[in-house]
Amino acid sequence: MRAKYRSEREKRLRPNGNTQYIPLKGIYADFDKDPYVEPGFTRPALTEKLDVLIVGGGFGGMLAAVRLRQAGVHSFRIVEKGGDFGGTWYWNRYPGAACDVESYIYLPLLEETGYIPKEKYAKAPEIFAHCQRIGRQFDLYKAALFQTLVEQMDWDEDARRWNVTTNRGDRLAARFVIIAGGILHKAKLPGIPGIETFKGHSFHTSRWDYAYTGGGPTSRMARLADKRVGIIGTGATAVQAIPHLGASAKQLYVFQRTPSGIGVRNNQPTDPEWVKTLKPGWQQERIRNFTARVSGRQTDVDLVRDGWTYIFDDSEFRRAKTPEEAAELRQLADFRKMEEIRARVAAIVKDPVTAEALKPYYYQLCKRPCFHDEYLDTFNRPNVQLVDTDGKGVERITPTGVVVKGKEYPVDCLVYASGFEVSSDYTGMLGFDIRGRGGRSLRDSWANGPATLHGMHSRGHPNLMMFSTIQSGWAINFVHILDEQSQHAAYIIERCLKRGIEAIEPSEQAQQQWWEVILGRLKMGSALGGPECTPGYYNNEGAKPGPNEMRYASFGGDTLAFIDVLRTWRQGEELAGLELTRSLG
Ligand code: NDP
């Protein structure tokens, strides 16, 4: 099996790594247009002084705003590209979009808002509505600047503020800036030869064109009834969209490069009797319990008990006496669980050739595990055809269709389920420059790779707080990390405002010490996308990271250990590792 996995990986390694993808710029800029707002929005430009500017109105930005309010900080603005709150859940409205992590732990602030999701795995419209609920309940709408992009950020050393300009002409002078720009937020296209020649209709999954397809996220797409549709990609997004496309289109071609592993979903409506048993504090307890389980910690109970906790269940190899024995048992458990995934394909998909092509041959965490109960069965429909490219990818796109192994598949509509940019150019991903002390850009400061304290602060860029995965926490339930980062940022800002501290920035030594912590974690290895994995965004498309890229690593492994670092820091010597500039006034 090891040899099979290796050969499947080698088949897919390509010299162009991340550069195989096309960003949505230039002739592709139309793919990035917001289809959910009325065109022609205008508003007067603002000139304001603020305590905090938050960049991003997804869960990260919203949680930051909520935690600031709870800390008594109310002078803030949220700048957001979309036409509403929601981030990922604003953009991703493709049919079948749903949360893969249990909704009772993924949707934040359930106890605070008094809301209980309708199902164990909430669908996208419900999650988007929850974002709006948070916006209303915490009075965030009045702070929001939607359909607005930050263009430039300059640190003003005399005023000790960030001067921020936007594409709407705003001039915002903020004491602190929180960047909650999200991860996996910039859609990308596959750099397939001929892509620019396609004459049919096409769009990316994160900008679903319901005007063309008809229907909505949960209803049949009636206008596809006479259409031949192609979808490129079979990642977590495609897995959710394909059953709906299969049910709506006259003909559906699914172009596959690497199959996803599809575990059991078993979604259930929320049991009202269970809801009655919930005691105050239940959500935080459940969130921590899940993160502990998927961080490899032992707990008395597994409260969530789903596909994720099953994957991370290591009870089998806890009895190992040596690390070598543990590694061997872990690998055997992985083979066995992937064998279950492959057996499920064989049991559901009737055509044996299609079934074989849908079987994933790699370790469980090489690619994002998926969970779905209708995806595989969709390939039993007479109008759905899997076009497997045997790891090579689509050969060519023509004005009228898609070519694989020399054969053209004619399509009227082409859907790109090709994922999102992953890059080690942090400011490039944000789309604006951050010029810190002395006008030095963050890009220059990080020319040899990022240097941070807790992944949040960076020397030379005072009062800037970044929420990202760079030298910071990573979690299966990512909202958990965002909330911890939010609480941390709100604590620091509240302390500074209260104590007349006008500027903070990490000391050289604190950054160095933090890097040593990250290095130590790196040596322990990461659960995701190891070097022997099939290529994908988890492992930099299979390319070995250089020394600078290595510095983009997350605090690997145990997520709760990262959270404990932040919590312990807040309980220890006040603002340790940060150099403070106090107000003279
Ligand atoms: P992915 O990056 O996971 O998938 C992109 C797909 O496009 C892959 O199947 C890739 O193949 C394929 N592809 C790329 N280039 C070509 C080509 N030239 N020819 C054929 N196929 C090609 O993006 P997704 O949008 O699916 O998911 C991104 C992430 O978003 C997920 O990993 C997950 O973290 C999150 N997500 C979460 C969801 C949830 O919670 N429910 C739902 C959806 C997404 P290959 O694998 O070979 O590279």
TrEMBL record:
Pfam family, any one: Pyr_redox_3
Keywords, in A-Z order: FAD, Flavoprotein, Monooxygenase, NADP, Oxidoreductase
Entry cofactors: FAD
Record-linked SUPFAM superfamilies: FAD/NAD(P)-binding domain
Domain of life according to the entry: Bacteria
Signal peptide: none
Family from the record: Belongs to the FAD-binding monooxygenase family.
Name of the protein in its database record: NAD(P)/FAD-dependent oxidoreductase
